[in-house]
Give the backbone structure.
Amino acid sequence: MPVVVASPHSGKAYPADFVANSPLDLLALRRSEDSFVDELIGAAPDFGIPLLRALFPRAYIDPNREPFELDPEMFEDALPDYANTQSSRVAAGLGTIARVVSSGQEIYSKKLKFSDAATRINENYRPYHRTLRDLLDATRRRFGHYVLIDCHSMPSVGGPHDPDAGRRRADMVLGDCFASSCSERVVSLVENVLTARGYQVVRNKPFAGGFTTRHYGRPAQGLHTLQIEINRGLYMDETAIKPNGGMAKLTSDMTALLAELAQIDSGDLLPK
């Protein structure tokens, strides 16, 4: 199918030295994970849809950022000129190498060396994006276009540094960078399938899409990317980081969405 799905933040292979050197315990570090999202969309290959999931954790390195989106205050040595030190993500402590977990707790007790960041980028970030690019290029060569569905989860309530702090979030947030990364046909299909199954679905607020959505989505060329944020309260205990009773239903509903995406009319995806 001309569809690829990805889960960049469900990885839980935490390097032992990373955990040992953090003042946070493993459970606290896992608060940044999009836990179990790869399982929610695990049926993708059954429909001929490739599924890419990161094994490394988001708290270690975030593939949904620019490769060098870094906070200079986190490092003991100077950053290279090509590093993006001014983005809103860096200001929030959530750059390529995050300063905080989603609850706002500091990940590190001492400053890092730039070489540490470069190693993580070369050994984790770059292989992830090479693989994603290979999948998308192969899909485009075969079909002339692609749809990338980038799957995430979000805390059920906005955090202290979020624009929706303290407010209960919708069940699903669809991010198409305000109609610039994906065709309306694809967004509407996803929205309609999820709404029909009883979910409250909103677009672009509070999440319009990250680096992946912006970087790979060019609908005028037939290259469509849509980010889906899933409310964690639907399927997991957010404190214990364990699936709850909603996991089976949500997995079934996401499988139904994948089945619909597999039937999408290619005529709606080709460049106009």
